[in-house]
Amino acid sequence: MVFNLRSFSFTDSIEDDPPPPPRGFSLKELRVATHNFSGENFLAEGGFGKVYRGRLADGSLVAVKRARTVDQCSKEQFETEVQVGRSVSTHPNVLRLRGFCRTTKELLLVYPLITNNSLSYNLTERPDRFAQPLNWTTRKRIALGAARGLAHLHDQGNIKIMHRNICVASILLNVQFEAMIGNVYVNTLTCGIIGFTAPEYSYTGKCTLKNDVFTYGKMLLELISGQPIFYVFPEVHNGEALWLEDWGNYVEEEAERLVRLALLCAHKDPSVRPEMSEVVEILESQFLQRDSSTRSSWSP
What we know:
Phosphorylase Kinase, domain 1; Transferase(Phosphotransferase), domain 1; globular; six-stranded mixed β-sheet; 10 helices; alpha+beta; 2 domains; two-stranded antiparallel sheet; non-specific serine/threonine protein kinase; protein serine/threonine kinase activity
């Protein structure tokens, strides 16, 4: 199948009153918000440190990342997240930085709390194995939302922001199960996980926007199939049928088109891969124009 990669022609839908830029919080504010970083508010732990649930004075729920140690590495990551968080314009499919706090002994980053966890959680990490999987309409909406968010990062005027590690774990789902790209600001030194990143990175050592397109394609295969990518990718590249693990309400013709798009994005030759703006246009033209009943729910 040949996709018509026409010029990029859609307008991002930004809120009428966009949220304010990241602001400085006092340590006292964040201690109160998290009940002094109590165990009952602990959410997760990552490379930077622990993450805590918090409620700010205005009632909004946040996730507070607390650096494990205040060393040179954590300082560099903190400064990068704040700098990029200030640079990226608001978009409904990109997780924004709410604020930060820096003292001699603490480094803290504040993000909105995402209620429905990550795409990875919803696909393969659900506690109840027999829980209803994401339905097909939701999966299409996630595919488009993630593409829109990534295209937005790639087109920040003079700044081209590479995510470097697009995967099901970095796609977060809000209360409406709309996709939000997270972990935008932390992958500045490496380019994803070897074996999951684009093949050219292994011999050039250079990360480009086309690497993000490649990993988006892999993420898309995992979203469609409900299977971990290390099972799915070898199968489809060897010409085998793609097994749909989840029993969601698939539309076979649409699933086939999405698989073809995913393989185009994950092509071994970076020159063949489309730009993310073109991926957005393909998704909009293939689905939004075909089903007017989903047009309003797909629009950000």
